[in-house]
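Researcher: Good morning. I'm working through a list of sequences from a screen, and I'd like to move beyond sequence-only analysis. For each chain I'm collecting a predicted structure so we can compare shapes side by side. This is the next one on the list. No need for commentary yet; just the structure.
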Amino acid sequence: MKKLMLGNDAFARGLYEAGCRVISSYPGTPSTEVTEAAAKYDEMYAEWAPNEKVAMETALGASIAGARSFCGMKHVGLNVAADPLYTAAYTGVNGGMVIAVADDPGMHSSQNEQDSRHHAIASKVLMVEPSDSGECKEFTKTAFDLSEEFDTPVIVRLSTRVSHSQSIVELCDREEKELKEYTKNPAKYVMMPAFARGRHVFVEERTKKLIEYSETSPLNRVEISEKAEFGVITSGAAYQYTKEALGEKASVLKLGIVNPLPVNLIRDFAAKYETVYIIEELDGIIEEHCRNIGVTNIKGKEIFGCIGELSQAIVAEKLLGVKNESASLDVNIPVRPPVMCAGCPHRGLFYCLSKLKVTVSGDIGCYTLGASAPLSAMDTTICMGASISGLHGFNKARGAESEGKSVAVIGDSTFMHSGMTGLVNIAYNNSNSTVIILDNSITGMTGHQQNPTTGKNLKGDPAAAVNLEELCKAIGIKRVRVVDPYSLAETEAAIKEELAAAEPSVIISRRPCALLKYVQHKPALKVAEDKCKSCKMCMKLGCPAISMKDGKAVIDHTQCVGCGICKEMCKFDAIE
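Model: Good morning. Structure tokens for this chain:
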């Protein structure tokens, strides 16, 4: 049976067919749907972990127990999971262990364009890279086999275009895998120096075997064109761009294994052509490898650069001098920047912070949009959890000058991911800092996943719910209070009071995400045109439901959820 599937859905199907038993991930676009789709197969246990490090450690524990296991994350999540990854390269596996990491060329939903191949190279583990949905499924199944054959975790590198594009997938039956026997073996699994030294020798020997395998692996293939004017070496989504743009004008070496890279296969292919182009997204890793093994008739990053994602049009223009006129439009389409939704509970809080001219140490989530105009209420955003740690450092550096006018903002899911340790640092080191936890009862930015504070697990079943107030108090914060961000007066007063207090404090801004299905909205508001004085005060909220027409404020009733913040701001009672 064949089916049209997203790359992420096909990956999940590959987990199912390969006999995977245990899945632990943290949601991160563009990887999220892999685990969500996998959770629909009852034969596999699937969970959301608090962060990627915990997810990888869970998957490794399941592997050591003898089960085929999986963990998924986006590229920056692999940074969080790097600690167990690098040591898992030494311990190896028992049951096969596969890791999905989804890169984001073009930064569609990320804070950087990190190339995860560097982690594979540095940790010395096998990495494969599919180029469509069919390969997502098949490469996943093969990855489990290779993991067990070579005693290594295997990373499958995805990208936004591969994860979120659809192509044909052939469905097969699940192949159940019995638990492998677990035998106590400290020399393999206890990575203290005496044992780790021996495992490092194993890693280097394994790398040699993997290079030898990559020379003849069916995951790498040569596509010769009799009409070829030159050769191309490529992988992943860039392979699809290459084939569509160049057709028979190029012979192609498609690399499905991107670490370790083959040597003789590349040399032999390059020797057939006067010029070989390396087409790869982000960093020039294949290109550098070619130069290191003495292949010099290559061109790559001097043509394509290392910024942003590639496309068929870019490849055609750079190599054939052909511009894709159909890709340009005569119509001037206005840009629609991302904004917080109408009724977003974060809007009222950010308005208050902006009004009070507070320095805001930000974090990763929907609320990062608070940095955008007209709110412009955020000064920094670094990585998950950095808001709290960063505020602590900021205040320790500037002292009383900043303590009374700076805060950290962090979402409930992000706080559970990596914010707790930063708050411990504030309490432990007596930092006069105010932290605001934006509790919208869900993991919002990645599509409404559950987290440890929601009381439900990945499947929606009841689960233990972390009480944020009690947790903050247990950490050592004495001043903890809850506010409703739909009440501007209450929110502003709380911010002023906590900033004035000469001790650490936490404000929990609590209101469910306006897009949650169970949230009951009030009737849409409307503007009484005769009362509107055109002061544009309501426009300062940046609510997408409010606009100006013929000099008067107008509320779009199809978007408005009746949150009432604009009504609270209007001094002329024009909003009713």
